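sorry to bug you again but im stuck and you know this stuff better than me. what follows is a protein written twice so to speak, once as letters and once as structure tokens for the fold. id like you to explain what the token line says about the fold, in plain words if possible. anything you notice is useful, everything is just below.
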Amino acid sequence: MGDQAEALLERVRAARAHRRPLCPRGTGGKSHLGRPVDGEVLDTLGHSGVVHYDPSELVVTARAGTRVSELIATLAEQGQMLPFEPPLFGGDASVGGMVASGLAGPRRPWAGSVRDFVLGTRVITGEGQHLRFGGEVMKNVAGYDLSRLMAGSFGCLGLITEVSFKVLPRPRASRSLQLRLTGEQARDNILGWRRRGLPLSAACHGGGLLRIRLEGNQGSVDAAVAEIGGEPLEDAHYWEKLRDQRLPFFDGAKPLWRLSLPPATPVLDLPGALLSDWGGAQRWLKSDADTDTLRQLAASAGGSATRFSGEEPEDAPFQPLPAPLLRYHQTLKARLDPDRIFNPGRLYADL
């Protein structure tokens, strides 16, 4: 455990010399996402530890193999948090996998995405170089955008070895409520509450119930509770279960689709069981419908559909990219990983 950057660098250089693809992996909790890759597993869990933490500056730097649970606990000791509420599939996740997947929890629409809080990274490229992009403060913008591109790259651009994050104080007060509403009623209420500046930090609708979380200072939370009404949410761990897909909705063998839609999208007539998260911007759908049907439905609303899980492998689990955007991705891949060492084809067959 500790700093194993040199050993990882040697593995990458050897793989490049032998034209052998690598599959970077931490805990493996997100290995089901994307297209299958025929490559040698590159385990990053040994490269771990919090490198630097300055609570007064709201900045923390950790190695890629650091467990997210460890990082969350370290921040909690100082009353701080990762604002994007990362999922811990399988009970835990690594910092590198958290960034590479770019997945965020229920707080994401109100707090921001993973990439919004990445200040800097260290990355081993496909050419066997260990480079640093960005820094530990917002003022240091050198390479800042490239660091953010690592979020959601699924390990296709290089091996993340270290990440610096901006963190935020934990809210002083938090209350969760539930209200019995239709999907359209839930959508209209959420839009209205957002316009009035109520301190929402989560909103999920399913089974005729809208569940919301309110966070902030005690006065604003109490005032919002009085205005909204409803009943207290009895399950104290509901948002963690939603974040980690441990709610009963996610059980079963049917394929799980993730629809990403504009926030004000009305209720859609979707073929399957639905759970609406992020105030309606993220909709989880369990359905046997074919890929083209679901993607056309999502596209008609200005969004996209990703196959998140299912028994049968999906050749194109991610929404296909427009040709100009695909060319941009190919150019970036060729610059950072010209020999296609890292997760070739995991996102798209041509990357």
Notes: The chain has two domains: 5-169+329-336, 173-309. The domain at 5-169+329-336 is CATH 3.30.465.10 (Uridine Diphospho-n-acetylenolpyruvylglucosamine Reductase; domain 3).
